[in-house]
Design brief:
Blueprint (H helix, E strand, L loop, with lengths): L14 E6 L14 E2 L6 E3 L2 E4 L14 E5 L2 E8 L13 H8 E6 L3 E6 L6 E7 L2 E18 L5 E8 L1 E5 L2 E2 L10 E3 L13 E4 L9 E7 L4 E5 L11 E4 L19 E3 L2 E3 L3 E7 L3 E2 L13 E2 L5 E9 L6 H7 L3 E8 L7 E10 L3 E3 L5 E8 L10 E4 L1
Antiparallel strand pairs: 1-2, 1-9, 3-6, 4-5, 6-11, 7-8, 8-29, 9-10, 10-11, 10-12, 10-21, 13-18, 14-17, 15-16, 15-18, 16-17, 19-20, 19-25, 21-24, 22-23, 24-28, 25-26, 26-28, 26-29, 27-28
């Protein structure tokens, strides 16, 4: 049966795995439980630096620029809020919450709490876009934007950076391969589709589900070397395809933002929506002479930012927010998503300071109340996320 679409890659076939790195910036292989689901495809970019050749050659013509550094990449995606359904068990996007906040505490049978820390961990992201798998190492969460409203599923917009990107595509090989083979000759131009460190399947041999790691790409001879050696014989011209683990069963259920009651200073507050944005302001060090083309370290020399807004109808108590803004009143603000045990996420801002509201509308007047989250003298206590 012919297939006219064999060369295309479709967004509805995307798969994504994320795994925390034990060593910062070391590409870490995902497992079956590391699958995550996104709303729409993952966006990412990875720029190669090119420097104009400014040597004078008695001409107005420009020659090819000089290749420079690999700049830190950018990534972004959106997810639903998906508690696991079991109190004390982390949500599906555990790695993102952990790397955004810095601390994770598991209270068995009760809750999983993510709290703020000065130091943040990195993770590896693996994403299959049709015929190609991309892997990014040294990923961090720069921003997490939480959206909880009465008319939509609660969601998070995630964004960040990474150190380096690799890829493995799909290509026919040339020849037959017996058990124990490790060097694979590719179809013409196939060497361009693979990077050292990626994992592939050779024909129907996927190394018992573990994939074969590429240890060398010979661009001159159009060959790749894999480890370990092949487990089984492969017939003529087997396909070399990118590897990803077979995902475990999906865990968790998205929760609607309508469920759960917001509280301001311990009092129920009926709102239309709440937005909370954490910005970590991480800096990748790209100017170090480190014998690498890539940035290999990151830090946070500045401050994190926590800000957000409440949308609500302008009711009789509405003017109180003008007072709170003017007198810099700090209230405890809790924004929940979900109201059933095991399916609840609470966003807690213990010291929310309000900024001057605005009022709009041509039917019912609505009020937008901006706020910022500040810390107490204890520090690192301006934000906490609890799944319970």
């Amino acid at each position: 049966m012919s297939n006219c679409a064999t060369n295309f890659a479709y967004a509805n076939e995307e798969e994504m795995f994320i795994v925390k790195e034990a060593n910062c910036g070391t590409l870490t292989k995902p497992g079956s439980s590391n699958k995550v689901y996104t709303i729409g495809p993952l966006d990412f970019s990875y720029e190669q630096e090119f420097i104009d050749d400014e040597q004078i050659r008695a001409s107005a013509s420009r020659l090819s620029p000089i290749k420079g550094r690999k700049m830190p990449g950018d990534w972004g995606c959106s997810t639903y809020v998906k508690p696991s359904g079991t109190k004390g068990t982390a949500p599906e996007h555990d790695v993102l919450f952990d790397c955004a906040m810095g601390n994770k505490t598991v209270n068995a049978g009760t809750s999983v709490v993510y709290s703020l820390a000065n130091q943040l961990d990195s993770f590896s992201a693996w994403v299959k876009k049709g015929h190609t798998v991309f892997a990014m190492r040294g990923c961090t969460v720069q921003g997490a934007e939480f959206m909880v409203s009465g008319d939509a599923i609660a969601s998070v917009n995630w964004s960040g950076n990474f150190m380096e990107q690799k890829w493995a595509g799909t290509c026919k090989s040339s020849g037959t391969y017996n058990t124990g083979a490790s060097v694979i000759t590719l179809a013409t131009g196939g060497h361009e589709l693979y990077c050292v460190g990626m994992y592939v399947e050779i024909g129907d041999d996927d190394n018992s589900g573990a994939g074969y790691r590429i240890t060398d790409v010979n661009h001159n001879q159009n060959k790749i070397t894999v480890t370990p050696t092949l487990q089984s014989d492969q017939g003529a011209n087997p396909t070399i395809a990118p590897w990803l683990p077979t995902a475990s069963a999906e865990v968790g259920t998205p929760v609607h933002g309508k469920l759960g009651m917001v509280t301001v200073d311990g009092q129920d507050a009926i709102i239309l929506s709440a937005g909370v944005t954490l910005t970590n302001n991480i800096k990748y060090y790209i100017d170090e002479k480190n014998n690498q083309w890539t940035a290999e370290r990151f830090g946070r020399p500045g401050y994190r930012d926590l800000e957000g807004s409440l949308e609500l109808y302008f009711l009789k108590r509405g003017p109180s927010y003008f007072y709170r803004a003017e007198y810099q009143v700090a209230n405890a603000l809790i924004v929940p998503a979900g109201n059933v045990a095991g399916y609840i996420m609470n966003l807690s801002i213990p010291y929310a300071e309000y900024r001057t509201p605005s009022i709009t509308g041509d039917e019912e007047f609505q009020q937008t109340v901006p706020f910022v989250g500040v810390a107490s003298a204890t520090l690192n206590d301006e934000f906490e996320i609890t799944f319970q």
